C-alpha cells in the first residue's frame, strides 16, 4: 500500500455514517426548513435535497458538534435555490399570463364546417384520439404511451373512432345528434371488451 493514497472507506461504513447523521439531525433540519417555508411538502422536498448533498459530500461533513451547523448551511443554500426557482416560475407565469391575455383567442372548434360539426359531435374519447393523430401527429405507439394502453387497443379504438367520424360526416344534419348519442353508448360498451 503506497503512502499518500486515500482510500474510500468500505461502503458499509460510509452508509452507516450517513444513516447516523440522518437519524441524529433529521428532525432538527426539518424544523429549520419548516420554519422557513409555507408548505410541509416543500420542507420535506428540501430536507431530501439537503441530505442528498450530505450523502454526496459525506467526506466533507464535519464531526459533531459541527455537523448540525454544517447541515443548516446546506439547507440554507438549498432553500435559497428553491426560492430563486419559485421566483423564476412566478415571473414566467406572470409573463405568460400577460402574453396570453393580449393574444387573440384561438377557437379551433368554432369552425362551422361539416367536419368541425361532426368532430364536435364525437364522444370526448374519440375526439382526443383523433386529435392525437391529426394535431399532434403521433403514431400508434406514441398514442399508446400517452393513453397508457396497448398499441393494439389504440388501433382498435382509432379504427372505431374513424368509423364514427365518417358516419357523422355522412349523416344528415338533423340526425347527427341521434348518431352521436348512439355511438357514445356503443363506445362505452365496446371499451371494456377491446382492452381485455
Description:
- The model has no long low-confidence stretch (mean pLDDT 83).
- This protein has helices at residues 11-34, 40-56, 67-102, 114-121, 124-134, 140-147, 151-170, 176-194.
- By secondary structure, it is an all-alpha fold.
- The N and C termini lie far apart (64 Å).
Question: Roughly how many Å is the radius of gyration?
Answer: 29 Å
**Mean pLDDT over the residues:** 83
Percent of residues in beta strands: under 5%
Number of strands: 0
Number of helices: 8
**Structural class assignment:** mainly alpha
> Helix coverage percent of residues?
over 70%
Low-pLDDT parts are: none
* Biggest sheet details: none
Strands, helices and their partners?
Elements: H1 11-34, H2 40-56, H3 67-102, H4 114-121, H5 124-134, H6 140-147, H7 151-170, H8 176-194
